[in-house]
Every structure is written in C-alpha cells, then in structure tokens.
Amino acid sequence: MTPEETGKAYDTITHLWTRAEFNSENGISAYQKALSFLPDATPKNCDTASSESVDGGYALDIGCGCTNRFVPIIESAGLTYEGIDISKDMLAIATSHLPSHTFYCTDVCTFTLPKHYSLISAWDSFWHIPLAQQEHLLKKLMNHLTDDGVLLFSCGGTDGSGQHTNNVMGPEVYYASLGLHRYIEILMEAGGFVRHVEFDQHPELHTIIIVQKKAGQKRAVQQKSDKSTAN
C-alpha cells in the first residue's frame, strides 16, 4: 500500500479515536521519558500548560492523528508543536480543536521538512511507512534534529525485516518493520545515541525507541567516514 492509500483507510476510521472509551493516556509516558532527555528539560504539569506558542524550539509529531493528546505535554516542555498526517479527515478533526497550530497534510517521506526540531516523534505511525523508504526517512529525521534533539518512535520490534497488511481495524492497513537491530544500526550510523529501548507491551512486539542526536557523536561518525573514504 502507498502512504496515500493508508491515509484514505484512516479517513474511514476516525471514530476509533474520537469515541469516549479511547485510551487518551496511550503513549504519554513515552513522551515524558523522551522529553526528559532534552537539555534543561523542566516539564510543567501538562494540565496547566499554555496552548500558546513558546520559544523553546519546535516539535514535529508524525502521524499525529486527531486526538491532540500529546500537545499539552510537548508544550509544557517549552516546545512549539507541529503535526503531520496523511489522513485529511484526521487532520480536519485535529485542526478544528487547535486552529492556531501548524498541521501538514502530506506524506512525510516526500515532504521537505521546513526546519530543525528539538523533538521528532512518530507514535504508532512509523510502521505504516513503506519498508523501502524507512531507512531514508530515519536518516532524514536525524538530519533535521537540533544538536541534542530527541527522536521518539514506536515500531515493530521484530528480529528481521518484513511487511504485511491486515484489516483488524476495519479497512486494510499496511505495516512494516526493518527489525530492531537494523533500526539501531541506522540510528547510530546517523549520529544518534540510543537512550531507551523498551518492549512496552510484552509479549507483543510493540517497541519504543528513543534516540538523541549528540553533536560530538555526529562529528565522530563523520570523521570515521572521512577517514574510511581517504583510505
């Protein structure tokens, strides 16, 4: 399936996230942990966080969906929130509640990211990226982190790579994973310092990865690459 087809599938199931019984706490603890790695992180009580933009850097939420549940905790850390999703109906709901915020309705794989971000997240969305595009996208996201910026995403923590579709949610939806070890290799090669890996729904393979872009780490990787090229 293409990302556009995945977006159309999600257009038909927005009700799964707007129903009263949806677990709005899903993913919150992962964001708290990721934000704790930011320099001088002093998150406030997200219940009292302002909805206005603040001057502490930017955050990009990939596959943001319609709930806006991560906005308060991100803004409580002093970051300006931006969301991106390929489902136009999901974004229509999100923007109706936060009309002053920035949302992009597009395919993140082909989208030119407009700035560098202190936090980039992809909660329960990265696995919808076509398998052949996942490595390139990870490298692009790492390149668009600020120094000491943090990347958080959940993925299928499989041993090897694979892809499939299923219709558990109703419409057919695509899923793919490069495999946990390959994800870690790519992120480290891109100058990332792995801060946290967790199988948070064991025995399911739902996996959280948190990586920080360290300036010194990136320089060491580049120097090693330059030396290898020279030889």
Any overview of this molecule?
- The longest helix is centred in the C-terminal third of the chain and has 16 residues, at 215-230.
- Helix content is 33%, strand content 26%.
- The protein has helices at residues 3-11, 15-18, 28-36, 71-76, 88-97, 131-143, 180-189, 215-230; strands at 58-62, 80-85, 102-105, 117-122, 145-156, 162-166, 173-177, 192-199, 206-213.
- The protein has one domain (3-230): 3-Layer(aba) Sandwich (Rossmann fold).
- Strands 3-2-1-4-5-9-8 form a seven-stranded mixed beta sheet, with helices on both faces. Strands 6-7 form a two-stranded antiparallel ribbon.
- The protein starts with a helix and ends with a helix.
- With 231 residues, the protein is α/β, with parallel strands linked by helices.
- The chain is built from eight helices and nine strands.
In short:
By secondary structure, the protein is of the alpha/beta class. Helix content is 33%, strand content 26%. The N and C termini lie far apart (42 Å).
